[in-house]
Design brief:
Elements: E1 5-8, E2 12-13, E3 25-29, H1 36-48, E4 52-57, E5 61-63, H2 67-74, E6 86-87, E7 107-110, E8 115-118, E9 125-127, H3 133-149, E10 153-156, H4 173-179, H5 193-203, E11 211-215, H6 220-228, E12 237-239, H7 259-272, E13 280-281, H8 291-295, H9 302-315, E14 319-320, H10 344-354, H11 359-369, H12 406-411, H13 416-429, H14 432-435, E15 437-441, E16 448-455, E17 458-465
Parallel strand pairs: 1-4, 4-10, 10-11, 11-12, 13-14
Antiparallel strand pairs: 2-3, 5-9, 6-8, 7-8, 15-16, 16-17
Helix pairs in contact: 9-13, 10-11
Bound molecules: 6-O-alpha-D-glucopyranosyl-D-fructose (ISL).
The site of 6-O-alpha-D-glucopyranosyl-D-fructose has 12 residues, from loops.
Length: about 475
């Protein structure tokens, strides 16, 4: 492909309640993926190809099976006693009204301590208490252990959630109803966030030649600027998500995404984010349905949309992150029963919806936004199980693998994968598409997205049609 860096989603030891985002042991590889020797070999082989490897760093929470949590729960004299967010409640109800992103209250009650522990994600993903400096020191030690191995950086999972408002007060009712989550205003940009990020960077990343990209849902441009401005010494880049849905829409809404909004968003960020910040460019990841399906599920537009997205991503200003399958033009999977889903978020949401509606409407809603759409196995060939495995895969393969697979697309000059390859090669062969200014033109014309990339005497002109119909000269 010409890709330089690989980002691995979590491969650490985990009971896999949330696909590895619930870590049991930070310094061990999950059995399903192999051993630490396998990992070391992977790293060496990636480096021997002149490529880099970045890992997922999940430090807002651990699995409830992590020994810190087990000690915190079971041993009153343990040094890990306050490593998590424990709270008493006098009336038998959870200590506050915060809800989990994966349905229901964000609190688990544990008889052993007669206390509640916070989990913003699944019931097995327990939030760490960053106020505790020993916890922070242990986290930095673990990060340095990985950096000493020679990895090239980290993607930091929900890193903007690590600092919670002291006292963990109730979330505002109106905000909660509007967002669908209660309490979020008390932790998505917490009081000590900047301080923690700076401390972490000083204690770890600054001593190595590595880069960081923070996953920061909800931060928007202004806060992202504070997180990534070079002089502030916090993060190198962030993933901000506002462009993945149209304004007023959420992932589980049934609607057609209007690309004119993406155009506005990109123009706004490239013009206003600031010269000492650097953007990430992405349309997909393991938490979102496929972008082509959001824009237009009509198969007639699939290939052209796949290429249009590639063109935007690889000619805009910022660092492109291509999510596996995008290079094939993958679309959403055709799940038709809840038993085919694997994601804890989808399954919990379905069960929650059953208390309000019938099973077919519940399924319909889950299908709109399920993270499983993007988690189906990589389609290598048109052979058995898409060449992914000779065993039955853990989740259904997208049925289109006979037409959409890597082997066949590589053979076809006009395929999406070859389009990506050409664009990446062009981008890498000169600096204009990387460092050049981004100058939008004709920005007022609906359905047309045109811009220049200019560096010195070199100039690229990109002209994109965002509509379903052909455009004549305008
Ligand atoms: O799916 C979401 C909630 O409905 C998103 O907000 C998502 O959970 C959020 O972007 C955080 O994602 C990251 O942390 C989660 C994990 O499940 C995701 O896979 C990960 O990318 C908890 O670790």
């Amino acid at each position: 492909m010409g890709v330089d860096i690989i980002w691995l989603s979590p491969v650490y030891d985990s009971p896999n309640d949330d696909n590895g985002y619930d870590i049991r042991d930070y310094q061990k590889i999950m059995d399903d993926f192999g051993t630490m020797e396998d990992f070391d070999r992977l790293l060496e082989q990636v480096h021997s190809r002149g490529m880099k490897l970045i890992m997922d760093l999940v430090i807002n929470h651990t699995s409830d099976e992590h020994h810190w949590f087990q000690e915190s729960l079971n041993n009153p004299n343990s040094p890990y006693r306050d490593y998590y967010l424990w709270k008493k409640s006098s009336d038998g109800n959870p200590p506050n009204n915060w809800t989990s992103f994966f349905s229901g209250s964000a609190w688990n009650y544990y008889e052993k301590r007669d206390e509640w522990a916070l989990h913003l994600f699944s019931k097995k993903q327990m939030d760490l208490n960053w106020e505790n400096e020993n916890l922070r020191a242990d986290i930095y030690k673990m990060i340095n252990w990985w950096l000493d191995k020679g990895i090239d950086g980290f993607r930091l999972d929900v890193i903007n959630y690590i600092s919670k408002q002291q006292g963990l007060p109730d979330g505002n009712e109106s905000i909660g109803k509007m967002m669908g989550y209660f309490g979020i205003e008390h932790y998505f940009y917490g009081p000590r966030l900047h301080e923690y990020l700076r401390e972490m960077r000083q204690e770890t990343f600054d001593n190595y030649d590595v880069f960081t990209v923070g996953e920061t849902p909800g931060t928007g441009m202004e806060m992202s600027r504070l997180l990534t401005s070079e002089y502030r010494k916090e993060l190198n880049m962030v993933f901000s998500f506002d462009h993945l849905e149209n304004p007023g829409k959420v992932r589980f809404d049934d609607y057609r995404y209007d690309l004119n909004y993406l155009k506005e968003y990109l123009i706004n960020w490239t013009e206003n984010y600031g010269n000492d910040c650097w953007m990430t460019l992405f349309f997909e990841n393991h938490d979102n349905p496929r972008m082509i399906s959001k824009i237009n599920p009509n198969p007639e537009y699939r290939n052209v949309l796949g290429k249009l997205l590639a063109m935007i991503q690889l000619t805009s200003k910022g660092t492109p992150f291509i999510y596996q399958g995008q290079e094939l033009g993958m679309v959403n999977a055709s799940f038709d029963s809840i038993s085919q889903f694997r994601d804890v978020e989808s399954i919990n949401l379905y069960n929650e919806l059953l208390s309000e509606t019938n099973s077919s409407d519940a399924l319909k809603k889950v299908l709109c936004g399920s993270r499983d759409h993007a988690r189906t196995p990589v389609q290598w060939t048109s052979g058995m199980n898409a060449g992914f495995s000779s065993a039955e895969p853990w989740i259904r393969i997208n049925e289109d693998y006979r037409e959409y697979n890597i082997e066949d697309q590589l053979k076809s000059p006009l395929s999406i994968i070859n389009f990506y390859k050409s664009l990446i090669a062009i981008r890498k062969s000169n600096h204009t598409l990387i460092d050049g200014d981004f100058i939008p033109v004709k920005e007022k014309i609906k359905n047309i997205f045109c811009y220049y990339r200019i560096l010195g005497k070199e100039k690229y002109y990109v002209e994109l049609n965002l509509s379903e119909t052909q455009k004549s000269d305008q």
